[in-house]
Every structure is written in structure tokens, then in C-alpha cells.
Amino acid sequence: MLRRSLFKKPNLRLEGQENTPPGDRIPVFECPQCRNKQEQPALEESLFLCARCGYHYKITARQRLGMMLDEGSFREMGARIASKDPLQFPGYQEKLKQAREQSGEKEAVITGTGSILGRPCAVFAMEHQFMMGSMGAAVGEKLTRLFERALDKCLPVVGFTVSGGARVQEGILSLMQMAKVSGAVRQHADAGLLYIAVLCDATTGGVAASFAMQADIILAEPGALIGFAGPRVIEQTTRQKLPEGFQRAEFQLDKGFVGKIVKRPEQRALLGLLLKMHTGGKDERV
Ligand SMILES: [Zn+2]
Hints:
Blueprint: E1 28-30, E2 37-39, H1 40-45, H2 61-68, E3 75-77, H3 92-103, E4 109-116, E5 119-126, H4 137-153, E6 157-163, H5 171-190, E7 195-204, H6 205-208, E8 217-220, E9 226-227, H7 231-238, H8 249-255, E10 260-261, H9 264-279
Parallel strand pairs: 5-6, 6-7, 7-8, 7-9, 8-10
Antiparallel strand pairs: 1-2, 3-4, 4-5
Residues 31, 33-34, 36, 50, 52-53, 55 line the site of zinc ion.
């Protein structure tokens, strides 16, 4: 059964959204790149791309799933799995509470099964409004279970990554998720099953250094920041000026880390085609 909230207009405050004056019902967004202003219906129509410069606005995980999956096909998994505070890290409980209020989600990743253009798949999307999509024990557990389910059901996995990396408040337990999820990805790969990752802005740290880069096919959204340590940290450490566009998707395409950059409105068709190519099927047109 489709979760109604999947297609519901979020009550969340999205990137670039201006304060809507009283009486004015249509929210207006300002592009962070070129300052172009657009009303929400026009932006929704273009899947949250700026009409002037093509900037890809940051969207929520549920918006992304709603755009990519066949309507009504999504079945969520592990919706009740949520991080506790295993190290009793100062202020973490409060941060979790704020993240849940801000994002409307229990954790920084949503997992489940669905279909894209009629092709069944396991799917995950990370939520940037939940502590920058950081990976703690709950995120690792949800992803591991997803790959294990996909292995069990012989399903390909399609994942949308957005993450600041490991969640510092969970210390070593957070870092351990890199190995745990990587193990599940490997088992899935060893069975000959397909994994496609779409790297979105920003995919960094322990997530970039594990399952984001372990996909068979690595796609990226235009302009997405992709890397391990951020440019500022690298500049401060190496004391060298970094080249223009360092760690952006276009830079990583040039360096061979990314297979193809795909604009958001073209992603669903490409994912459907890739799933069809790798899972067989003669019943539909390419
Ligand atoms: Zn713009």
C-alpha cells in the first residue's frame, strides 16, 4: 500500500524557499546559484530545477522517491528503525529530536522496494534534512537489511546518496557501518545482482568512501559535491590551492569516479532502461 505521505506536499521548509507573506498562498523559491525566483508549482513541474541556470535544488528523500518510482509501487522497509544514543554523546538526544522534527523522518535514510518503469527494484534515498544524511547505526542497519532483502528476492538496488558522512555522535559504531554495509553490498554483487547509485549533492565522508562508490553503475546529479574530505579541509591540510570545480560531479566524471552525469528529469528513464538491460525483458520499448 502506498504511503500517502509519499506524494503529499511536504510541510518542510525546502532549500531556497522564501518566507511566504500572509495571504500569499504560493511559496516562492530563490535559486541559490543565480537568484532566479520561481513559484512552487513551476518548480515542481521541472522536478525542482532552476529554469534559468539548471541548478538542482536539494529535495527530500520522499520527494525523490515520488519522482523516480512508479506511482503506488513503494513499500517502505524498516520504518521504525531509529538511532538511539549508544555513547550517550552530549547533546545527541536533542539533535535527534530536532532532526526528526525538521525532516519529518525517523532516520537519515528511507529504504524499501518499488518499481521504475515497471522494473522491480530495492531502493534507498538519503535525507539531507536529517543531520545532513549522516550515517549512524540505524542508517547502516536499514541499508544492510535492504541489500539482504534484495539478495533474497534477486532484486537490483537503486540508491540515491546524500550524506555528510559518518555520524560523529556515534563514534566508532558509526564508522563500523561502512564495513557492515560494504559486506552486504558485496554479497549482493557476488550473486550477480545490479546496484546503481545516483550521487546527489553532497555525497561525502564515510558514505562516499563505502557504499556510494561501490555501485556497478555510478551516476551523479549535475554540480553535486562528491568526495571524502571537503575542499576546505584539504586546502588547509595540503596548503595548496585546489582547482576550479574540485570535487564537483563534472570533476569526478573527468577523473573516472562517476560514469555519467544525469539531469533529474532524465534519471527515471535512464534508470528504467538500465534495469531493463540488466534484468531482461522484451515486452517494452527501449
Ligand atoms: Zn538558477
